[in-house]
Amino acid sequence: MMIVVTGLAAPVWAQNAPEPRTLPNGKTWTYDADAGRDIMRTCAACHGEFGEGGGGGVYPRLSGLHPEYIAEQLRAFKSRTRENIPMIPYANERELPEKDVLDVAYYLASITPPRHPPADDVAMDAFERLKLAKQAVQIPRQPGDVEAGKALFNADCMECHGRDGQGRVKKPPLAQQHMPYLHTQVGLFLSGAREHDDVDELMRPKSARNWEDLWAYVSTLDD
Ligand code: HEC
Ligand code: HEC
Predict the structure, then answer these.
(1) How many A from CA of 121 to the centre of ligand 1?
(2) Structural domain for 196, as ranges
(3) How much is the pTM?
(4) In this structure, is residue 60 part of a structural domain?
(5) Relative to the CA of 170, which ligand 2 atom is closest?
């Protein structure tokens, strides 16, 4: 059983401890949650103490993402197949060997970000309240036509990103992810700087109005 640091149920993929595996250096990796928490200290300046995201939404939420997705992106940063200039000092073989990639990925995956800070009338100790408030990721409603956005989402995005936008194995969530970050990623997909399936069919034909409606709907998915 992995450590679940909130009172909420962890996503299915985080409920069982990962199988040990053989690292490129021939050693065996077994999940070490304390090591994951330690590594996260260097990431916290940008991504927040619990991976809740930061910088007004420029730095993505990492908590609750699929561990294999997180690991895959970290490897992509290390090999520069996904360009991420702010992370160059952190995502390299010396600072983040494969063992650390796996520990931090599974640690982050085990944190389920609450959708709201705890309500005032819920009894809990002050420390727990503060922790849950910090972990909470609540996306502000975006302007636009939510129904029109839902139709676009269901037609073009749901298959991979999930009915409720919570993501699937190796497919990141769109729900409960920070809007400035999502906007940037679509810009990168459209310019070809980051790869996404079927950009010419799924993304390029959409008007500014379509995008506004789509994000308006996505912003309701964590209500
Ligand atoms: C100096 C700021 C900074 C630090 C420190 C940092 N990151 Fe990042 N990280 C970013 C930025 C900026 C992005 C988004 C890049 C982009 O726009 O594509 C990002 C993106 C990511 C993503 C991709 C998320 C997704 O949804 O695709 C992962 C995973 C990630 N960081 C993990 C980490 C981990 C683990 C650490 C610590 C070892 C770390 N980051 C440290 C700035 C930082
Ligand atoms: C065929 C499957 C598929 C479909 C359909 C799809 N996506 Fe994706 N999407 C992915 C995968 C896989 C990734 C992760 C790419 C990677 O590994 O770098 C992704 C990543 C993203 C990201 C970046 C998220 C992050 O955390 O970095 C955004 C934003 C996104 N997709 C938006 C959309 C939108 C909007 C639609 C519908 C118009 C859509 N996608 C449809 C598979 C899909």
Answers:
(1) 35
(2) 146-218
(3) 0.94
(4) yes
(5) 12
